[in-house]
Design goal:
Elements lengths: L7 E8 L9 E15 L3 E5 L5 E2 L5 E5 L2 E3 L3 E3 L2 E7 L6 E12 L10 E13 L2 E9 L14 E5 L10 E9 L8 E10 L7 E15 L1
Antiparallel strand pairs: 1-11, 2-3, 2-4, 2-15, 5-8, 6-7, 7-9, 8-9, 9-10, 10-11, 12-13, 13-14, 14-15
Length: about 220
Amino acid sequence: MKRRIAVVLVAAVLLTQAAPALAATGSGTALVGSVDVTIHGKKRIVQPPVAQCLTNGGNIQNASKRIRLKGVAEYGDGNTKCTADPSNGRITVEATGQKFELNALPEFGGPRIRISNFLATCATTVSGAVARMQFSGLVGMEAPQDLPPNYTVVVPGDHKGDPPLAKIILNEILVPSPPDGSITLNLMHVIFAPTGQGPITGELVVGSVYCTPLV
């Protein structure tokens, strides 16, 4: 069953008491997406981080044009922005994109998944970091309107008894243990052949941001 989601907006907050009240600096990075997959154990397709920006380069904006990886995925136009506030050293990073399409699965009985547009962003605070994401026009998979962190859908194999084709995580939130105030948010993370067996192996990311306060 296909489902369109008009807009999904999610916020994730991580706070740490280790940072002083006047935290001086922060750092972060953003990228539109990345791909590293292998088809039938032979053909490897790699797309390095798209339009990646880093705050250690000052205030940076990068853009990318349409990228088509035949039989795997298509990224439309995208942008990233990494900004450092000189008055307090706090940083904000964001990744935006248009018309993402995951087309690696239909050949093996899975769905074609599309997103019309997306945004992932994070920022440092005096005591940690905050991240949020939003997207529209989701087609090809089920997802709730109020999307929780790490919402996961497993795509089954084409035939009964086949291993799963992929595990798709929306609003993936990654924090270290013990927490140090940093946060990573992946709008979509696709793990192919999560059991280690399948026609496609590897991973794909859409809309990724990372922020950490430096104290």
